[in-house]
């Protein structure tokens, strides 16, 4: 829809992650990579294609036990969740974590990696089917945002303390309620603005409970920053994937020529997990 313009120099076409086989190497590519390797990659755009060019620092090996096809659904969600929630907000074992949109691609990944690391997981979603899927992935508390006030439910479940970290893709319309849901030293990380970019908030809670509000995307980061994130994901997340503790959740696949149909499915918001395009 043109609401997410690509960074300067990036492909104008959609697609921020992919998987495939290396066909050729540039002159400065590290020796760990070879023609014929099966890999997945974080992209700045252009993934809706038969072939892509990707910086070597944004390549990942296909995790053991994951198909080449399903691996396409890992790089962007893994890099988003690890860079925001763990590298920046320092979510730690024993803490609590609220994920808005728990049944999304990012949400289904975040539930699994957080549970693997010993974190109590709260999620919101908009249907009982989606909440059941989140529960099956390990979420501890599942809240239907259409029928429940998530702030009140979180207070009930935490004896009034609130959660430690929130991953939010809604933005403006949820800002005050997110602040009200955080405990002392709580951290809010915003990665989307489905609920708008503007809000009026009462900052008293931020001061009283020493709250942190942060926001970041992945696409506009420097090559060096992306390479650092990819390296951290390979080191910290890939072993959990290889061990079967974290799995890509794939709802449906479409041939690339049916990309419009795939978008219609995504816009209907009935899917759970990722939708993949196959060239």
TrEMBL record:
Q: Report the domain of life of the source organism.
A: Eukaryota
Q: Where's the Enoyl reductase (ER) domain?
A: 2-277
**Alphabetized SUPFAM superfamilies for the sequence:** GroES-like, NAD(P)-binding Rossmann-fold domains
InterPro entries attached to this UniProt entry: ADH-like_C, ADH-like_N, ER, GroES-like_sf, NAD(P)-bd_dom_sf, Quinone_OxRdtase_PIG3
The entry lists its GO molecular-function terms as: oxidoreductase activity
One Pfam entry for this protein is ADH_zinc_N
- SMART domains tied to this protein: PKS_ER
Q: Which UniProt keywords apply?
A: NADP, Oxidoreductase
Q: How does it assemble?
A: Homodimer.
Matching PANTHER family? OS02G0805600 PROTEIN, QUINONE OXIDOREDUCTASE PIG3-RELATED
**What is the name of this protein?**
Enoyl reductase (ER) domain-containing protein
List the source organism.
Answer: Zea mays (Maize)
């Amino acid at each position: 829809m043109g609401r997410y313009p690509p960074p300067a120099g990036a492909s104008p076409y959609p697609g921020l992650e992919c998987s495939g086989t290396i066909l050729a190497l540039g002159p400065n590519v590290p020796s760990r990579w070879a023609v014929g390797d099966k890999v997945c990659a974080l992209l700045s755009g252009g993934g809706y294609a038969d072939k892509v060019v990707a910086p070597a620092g944004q390549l990942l090996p296909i995790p053991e036990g994951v198909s080449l096809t399903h691996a396409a659904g890992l790089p962007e969600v893994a890099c988003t969740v690890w860079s925001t929630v763990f590298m920046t907000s320092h979510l730690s074992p024993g803490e609590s974590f609220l994920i808005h949109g728990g049944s999304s691609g990012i949400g289904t990944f975040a539930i699994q990696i957080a549970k693997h690391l010993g974190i109590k997981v709260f999620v919101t979603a908009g249907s009982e089917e989606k909440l059941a899927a989140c529960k099956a992935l390990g979420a501890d508390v599942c809240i239907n945002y259409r029928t429940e006030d998530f702030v009140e439910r979180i207070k009930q479940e935490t004896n009034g303390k609130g959660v430690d970290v929130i991953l939010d893709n809604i933005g403006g319309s949820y800002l005050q309620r997110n602040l009200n849901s955080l405990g002392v030293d709580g951290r809010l990380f915003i990665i989307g603005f489905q609920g708008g970019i503007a809000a009026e908030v009462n900052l008293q809670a931020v001061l009283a409970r020493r709250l942190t509000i942060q926001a970041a995307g992945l696409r506009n980061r420097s090559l060096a920053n992306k390479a650092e994130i990819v390296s951290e994901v390979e080191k910290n997340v890939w072993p959990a994937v290889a061990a079967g503790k974290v799995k890509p959740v794939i709802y449906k696949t479409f041939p690339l020529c049916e990309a419009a149909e795939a978008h219609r499915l995504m816009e209907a918001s009935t899917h759970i997990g990722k939708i993949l395009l196959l060239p």
